[in-house]
Amino acid sequence: MAKLQDKVAIITGGVSGIGAETARLFVKEGAKVVLVDWNDQNAKSFVDELTGQGGEAIFVKADVASEEDVANVYKETIDTFGKVDILFNNAGIGAVKPTEKLTYAEYRKTVSVDLDGTFLVAQLAIKEMLKTGGGVIVNTASMYGWVGSPGSAAYNAAKGGVINLTRSLGLEYATRNIRVNALCPGYIDTPIIPEDYKQTLRDVTPMKRLGTSEEMAKAVLFLASDDSSFMTGNTLTVDGGFTAQ
Ligand SMILES: NC(=O)c1ccc[n+]([C@@H]2O[C@H](COP(=O)([O-])OP(=O)(O)OC[C@H]3O[C@@H](n4cnc5c(N)ncnc54)[C@H](O)[C@@H]3O)[C@@H](O)[C@H]2O)c1
């Protein structure tokens, strides 16, 4: 039996990296997926790929930090599939710059996408899930929600916020059948990491390699499916050993 048979899953940041690979796995496991991204460049070909394999998928262009766009994501989802069972709340941007050079606008932009956007998309998911009796939310935080690093103050603050947002939502809805957990990836081989920086990141990872989007997708499937049915308000750190150091 497929693990997500007939479940409707919204995946933000759904056309690249961890989000796209998770969409492939979710469709294989029987889910209908709503791909959300502010970049629509590869959206049509990716929807074609998923539907070509017999899956059901739509794309909705949206900025997760825009209330209007997010409201439209839920309208399109309900109009097309009638409900929301799973949210993979994964869209994010990085910001690597020494703090003394970071503008307040750059700081705000990072926090607004990585933390405020995560809240906004989760809040509307919760409203829909309360109507249908429950659901599952998986937020993408980061190992940098656990530990600090120089030059990434805005990103790290936002991801730390995502971890405590996850705890708080998990507790708030624990008796209402909405589970909320977070994935904390280490360095993963996706377009968010500049090519010329990848070797440095392999070197500082105990396993001496980057993680893959496929490895993240399997962890997300665990969190999104009944395999993690007694888990809420918690995190799964998948980082090749980085935060064990
Ligand atoms: N790759 C890593 O090493 C790593 C490590 C820890 C955490 N993460 C987190 O994983 C998540 C996925 O990142 P990825 O590595 O797959 O990178 P990615 O760049 O391949 O994917 C991120 C996607 O999010 C989309 N996006 C960004 N801002 C958006 C917005 N405001 N509205 C809608 N879509 C938006 C991008 O267009 C992109 O398609 C992010 O939250 C990232 O912070 C990644």
UniProtKB/TrEMBL annotation:
Keyword entries, A-Z: Oxidoreductase
SMART domains reported for this sequence: PKS_KR
A molecular function (GO) term: oxidoreductase activity, acting on the CH-OH group of donors, NAD or NADP as acceptor
Record GO biological process: bile acid metabolic process
Matching InterPro entries: KR_dom, NAD(P)-bd_dom_sf, Sc_DH/Rdtase_CS, SDR_fam
Domain Ketoreductase: from-to ranges: 7-186
Family membership noted in the UniProt record: Belongs to the short-chain dehydrogenases/reductases (SDR) family.
Protein name: Short-chain dehydrogenase
Species of origin: Ureibacillus manganicus DSM 26584
